[in-house]
Amino acid sequence: MSLAIPGEPPILFDLGTGLRYFGLDQPTDGSFRGTCLLTHLHWDHAQGLPFFAPILRPGAELDVYGPTQEDGRLLAHAVGTFLSPPHFPVAIDALPGRVRFCDLGDDDIRIGGVEVRSRLIPHVGNTLGFRVSVGGVSIAYLPDHQQPIDGSFSTVSNVRELIDDVDLLIHDAQFTPEEFARKRDWGHCTPEYALWLAREAGVKQLALFHHDPLRDDDALDSMERCSRAFATASGFEVFAAAEGQTLVVHSTP
Q1: Residue 116 has what pLDDT?
Q2: With 2 labelled, which of 24, 61, 96, 248 sits at a CA distance of 20 to 30 A?
Q3: How much is the CA Rg of the chain, to the nearest whole Å?
Q4: CB of 139 within 8 A of CB of 166?
Q5: Which residues have CB under 8 Å from 12's CB, separation 6+?
Q6: pLDDT digits (tens, 9 = 90+) for 25-84
Q7: Pairing mode, if any, of strands 168-172 and 137-142?
Q8: Contact of 50 with 88, CB cutoff 8 Å
Q9: What percent of the chain has pLDDT over 70?
Q10: Structural domains in the chain?
């Protein structure tokens, strides 16, 4: 997932397999400059990096901001552990382009003209959520978020600091309530929880994200229809995030 801001290099949300497709439309002459906000290092969020064509050219640069690990390892070390032989034939330091790593926890930083807030949120292992603000527009990205394992609807202050009054919330919605009952400690949540969270935080738009791989289009359409009635009554918009989708986000009063 990528964020295009006029006058700013692209900001990538995570480094999953979609990174390869994003790279097809980026310069591959070594002039690429970009930033990634990396929530955590589970494979589905990081395995696209060595297949990102722009960084396979000398001169290209990518700055990756992500979480320090629970065991104290730096982000660069943790990435280098799995992006190196025998797990992958090319080590991170051997990529032609330059990848720089910056460790974050509960931080507020600026990247160019963009304000970025990172907060550690409940998941499996150290995981960040992000809030990006620029030009009066705010977007929060929490793709992997552990609902309380007892199935209740509550949250922590770090999450509220990311999502309160945000224009667009991109949020985990992986499990049905029945699936959550069996996988309650897997680090994800239900659409119902995401809807509740959006209402409590005064979110303007909610993108239901991180669908279970076994969910087909009909199931996602059904989830979207069921969610829309709740969202409309609660005063916000909701939709199911889809591959290839492009959104234009405007600030609302």
Answers
A1: 98
A2: 96
A3: 18
A4: yes
A5: 1, 2, 3, 19, 22, 34, 35, 36, 37
A6: 999 999 999 999 999 999 999 999 999 999 999 999 999 999 999 999 999 999 999 889
A7: parallel
A8: yes
A9: 98
A10: 1-104 (3.60.15.10), 105-243 (3.60.15.10)
